[in-house]
Amino acid sequence: MERSDVLAKSFDESRAHLRAVALRMLGSPAEAEDAMQEAWLKVMRADSHEIENLRGWFTTVVARVCLDMLRSRRSQREDPLPSSLGDVADDARTPETELGLAEAIGPALLLVLDALTPAERVAFVLHDLFDLSFEEIAPIVDRTPDAARQLASRARRRVQGGPAPSSELAHHQQLVSAFLAASREGDCRQLIAVLSPDVALRADPVALRAAAENPQGAPKLAAQVDGAALVAEAFKGRARGALAALIDGQPGAVWAVAGRVRVAFKFSIHARKITAIEVVMDPVELAKLSVLIG
User: Fold this and answer.
1) Cα(93)–Cα(99) distance, rounded to whole angstroms?
2) 187 Cβ partners below 8 Å, 6+ apart?
3) How far apart are CA 60 and CA 57, in angstroms?
4) Quick one: which H or E segment has residue 278?
5) Are 148 and 138 contacting, i.e. CB atoms less than 8 angstroms apart?
6) How many domains does the chain fold into?
7) In a shared domain, residues 25 and 154
8) I want to staple 20 with a disulfide (CB 3.0 to 4.6 A). Which of 66, 98, 107, 269 is the partner?
9) How many secondary structure helices (H) and strands (E) does the chain include?
């Protein structure tokens, strides 16, 4: 087998793990995919004939690419479009569970990670979440092993002292999650239970066209729909691919393809009821939103 074929096969077998690392580092599915592509180009250009642990080497390459991206983001003061990640017991980790954990972090933890320096974030993620030794981490962050240990320790203290979501935010998230579950299950009664009697559903022109072209899967949209019964009917059995998210800091939902948000559902909530739902699909308007999936 040609060396390029060996690399391609091994990289593909390590893809779930590598994508989990990139997602943890960057917090953005789109940026994680970019990092994976850049890492693969570096792998193909490198002399790898004497490397025995390809998975470990791939992890190092991906981590270095992510570190460069974090430094660039920080210097340009760019905000990512984060995904959500989560935690799983060390003894339960497999490529599949690592991919799952990288797609399930809470918004509060991700905000804390974004506040870390690039080197702190890399050291913390690689050691505390993926069990790399500080000897392995040191050359990635251009530090000694002891210095890498200190980076991870500082990051860990900041993460452990990170903010918890307010009780109101948590309740609003539960309300949106209940709405999405009722929508998927076609439970009209439960949908009405979480909606205000005078709830309003609004959709932009792009969303209206998409809904008309996909009458079986998308919600039944109009420029504006008023009243709990009609809004419940519009979503009954729909929104199967929607994911809970924070949109501009408020509970909402998105539909994403290959890590890119295609539709945003913005919820207004008052007195423990959903009072308005705005469906945004216009790419220009979507780009203005800060979206945190999870």
Assistant:
1) 9
2) 181, 236
3) 5
4) strand 273-280
5) yes
6) 2
7) yes
8) 98
9) 14, 7
